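Whiteboard transcription, Tuesday session. T.W. wrote the structure tokens on the left side:
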């Protein structure tokens, strides 16, 4: 039976959409370690980032002190087309699980990109336009980030060059078509359009591409644009977590209006941007001693950066062209097994979340993909939303917490982030339903190969 006091869906009214982002670093007792220049190993300063990011974003990247940052009015205007996003009470899932726990989820799939990534894409495109750039370049694996960025760029009148990993380009033609609707220029990577792409094609003509290679091409396209374009990234960075804080701020406000506060906050973790955004206000409460929610990151067992990675300085990309960040990492050469279909395949993790996890403020669990898709299908049937495989990691985590409550009889309040929809992942769903999906957990020896690719620098000594 539904609780009369608590509606199924709470949509905050438009005028209650937060007008500022919240910077979680401002509440941290210690800041994440600084980014290092890969050649000199010197901590980077804001101006060192200007060739890579627009100035405003470089500032946000380095600013750990400012607690609240105004969301520019043109960004708010786009947000209002799809935000505030709903906070939903999973009554039907609760009944199916027979749990006394209350389960809430914040749904970020209500926009054409189908995920939370639009929240940062809009901000990054706006600042690029404001600085007078003509366009941006990026890479995309599964395609959600490329879609979100194409949408944002088309709105602000910027060009958007997307280097899409060749196997996804071929396997997900509709993703490419959606990007093209928004004038995104999609190139299968490796391509003949860049020096690095041509070199890779010469060495390995049959390659199906990798995220690292696509990053290297996108970076080259930006730095050879004569200053007209910048390279942008959809996760991991501090600035991206800042933009995603809108998720957590809206959730906090909506829960307050319901008279609720989460005992447990669960999110999936790829590069950490949705999780960092969802937990921002709740983690701040925890750090400041105002409340003590448990915070749980869920990752795939086949790409276990938090649960089995090392806290080390590493490159943010496989092409080893970016600055070094201290984070939980599997090594930039790590690539998940070929049967892995669940997304969240990044080798590292946001430096902010890595620091918080390292200091014990956060927990992490890893699941094999068949367990994740089992949760996805149960959720779809109960709640009528077809989740992205990435999001289904959070669903799995939340379901298991709810089942623990069934055992203990505790009526806990569980909140999780439902980051997006899975319409472009039907090949993976088909394989799960046909019973052909397999699980694979890397062995310690396989992980060691990735750790061997960690930069051999004094900061990484004794790992
Ligand atoms: C990209 C993506 C993720 C993972 O990225 P984070 O930066 O870890 O949030 C999760 N869910 C969906 C739907 C995505 O598109």
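and on the right, the sequence the group agreed on:
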């Amino acid at each position: 039976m539904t609780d009369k006091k608590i509606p199924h869906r709470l949509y905050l009214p438009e005028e209650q959409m937060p007008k500022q982002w919240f910077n979680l670093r401002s509440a941290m007792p210690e800041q994440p370690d600084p980014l290092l220049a890969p050649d000199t190993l010197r901590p980077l300063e804001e101006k060192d980032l200007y060739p890579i990011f627009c100035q405003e974003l470089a500032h946000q990247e380095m600013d750990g002190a400012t607690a609240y940052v105004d969301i520019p009015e043109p960004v708010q205007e786009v947000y209002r087309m799809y935000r505030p996003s709903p906070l939903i009470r999973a009554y039907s899932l609760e009944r199916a699980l027979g749990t006394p726990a209350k389960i809430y989820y914040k749904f970020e799939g209500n926009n054409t990109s189908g995920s939370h990534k639009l929240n940062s894409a809009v901000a990054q495109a706006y600042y690029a336009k404001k600085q007078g750039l003509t366009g941006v370049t990026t890479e995309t694996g599964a395609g959600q980030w490329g879609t979100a960025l194409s949408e944002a760029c088309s709105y602000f009148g910027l060009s958007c060059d997307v280097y899409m990993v060749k196997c996804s380009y071929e396997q997900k033609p509709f993703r490419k078509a959606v990007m093209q609707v928004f004038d995104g220029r999609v190139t299968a990577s490796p391509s003949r359009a860049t020096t690095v792409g041509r070199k890779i094609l010469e060495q390995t003509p049959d390659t199906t591409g990798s995220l690292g290679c696509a990053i290297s091409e996108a970076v080259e396209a930006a730095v050879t644009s004569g200053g007209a374009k910048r390279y942008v990234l959809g996760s991991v960075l501090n600035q991206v977590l800042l933009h995603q804080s809108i998720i957590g701020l809206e959730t906090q406000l909506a829960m307050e209006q319901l008279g609720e506060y989460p005992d447990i906050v669960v999110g999936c973790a790829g590069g950490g941007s949705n999780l960092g955004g969802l937990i921002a206000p709740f983690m701040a409460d925890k750090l400041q001693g105002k409340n003590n929610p448990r915070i749980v990151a869920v990752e795939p067992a086949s790409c276990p950066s938090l649960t089995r990675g090392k806290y080390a300085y590493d490159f943010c990309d496989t092409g080893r062209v970016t600055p070094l960040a201290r984070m939980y990492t599997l090594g930039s050469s790590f690539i998940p097994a070929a049967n892995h279909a669940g997304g969240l395949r990044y080798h590292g993790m946001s430096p902010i979340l890595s620091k918080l996890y390292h200091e014990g403020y956060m927990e992490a669990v890893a699941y094999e993909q068949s367990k994740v898709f089992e949760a996805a299908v149960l959720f779809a049937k109960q709640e009528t939303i077809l989740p992205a495989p990435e999001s289904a990691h959070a669903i799995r985590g939340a379901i298991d917490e709810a089942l623990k409550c069934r055992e203990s009889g505790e009526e806990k309040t569980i909140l999780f982030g439902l980051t997006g929809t899975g319409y472009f992942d039907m090949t993976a769903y088909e394989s799960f339903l046909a019973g052909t999906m397999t699980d694979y957990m890397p062995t310690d020896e396989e992980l060691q190969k990735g750790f061997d690719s960690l930069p051999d620098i004094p900061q990484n000594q004794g790992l």
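Someone added at the bottom: The chain is about 40% helix and 15% strand.
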